Amino acid sequence: MSETALIENCINNSAVAQRELYNRYSGILFGICYRYASCRQDAEDMLQEGFIKIFSKISSFENKGNFEGWMKRVIVHTCINYLKKNKKFEDQVSLDSIFNLEVREESIASKLLGKQVMECLRLLPIGYRTVINLYAIEGYSHSEIGEMLEIGESTSRSQYIRGKHVLESILIKKRLIKPDVDRVEWLAYLSN
After folding, report:
1. Of all helices (H) and strands (E), which one includes residue 40?
2. Which of 95, 134, 135, 101 is closest to 119 using CA atoms?
3. Helix and strand tally (H, E) in the chain?
4. Where does residue 78 fall: left (phi above 0), alpha (psi -120 to 50 degrees), or beta otherwise?
5. Residue 6's pLDDT is what?
6. What is the set of domains in the chain, with CATH numbers?
7. Helices 153-173 and 113-121: angle between axes, nearest 10 degrees
8. Phi, psi at 79, each rounded to 5°
9. Helix (H, G, I), strand (E, B), or coil: what is residue 131?
């Protein structure tokens, strides 16, 4: 079924089309949810809420731009709302505990650096992880992030800078980058 037909059938509440849409895009959209979630269960809940929103708002998609991009924006906003609703941002983490995070060893040594960076990103406290996801991966500005998370633009910037430093220390601790040499822009790996 073409994407246009799939969208039209979903607008008409076709269960077959909704299942097809889910099967086509759930893997990609789950990956986004997993970046924001603290655990797999939270990611699954975010994905479920996201698809409910996609199905209920699909008629607002005007066939302008990329449909997958539209769904990704719906999912990102769903993840942010889920975190706010469940008060995930209220967790207080001391700086000492951040720098003493337990770093899990990789089960397969040959994983790509991009995947390793993403796993290290998951070790960050939710506030840092969310701002890094929104800014470095999703491409939102600090002003937009501030509005989404109901924080100041300067708070978004400082969370990003602090999170980036903590992530860098984790990468050094895991020996994915070296502290004494110029290193590649490892944040570029986040968008892969």
Report:
1. helix 40-57
2. 101
3. 9, 0
4. alpha
5. 92
6. 1-86 (1.10.1740.10), 91-192 (1.10.10.10)
7. 120
8. -60, -45
9. helix
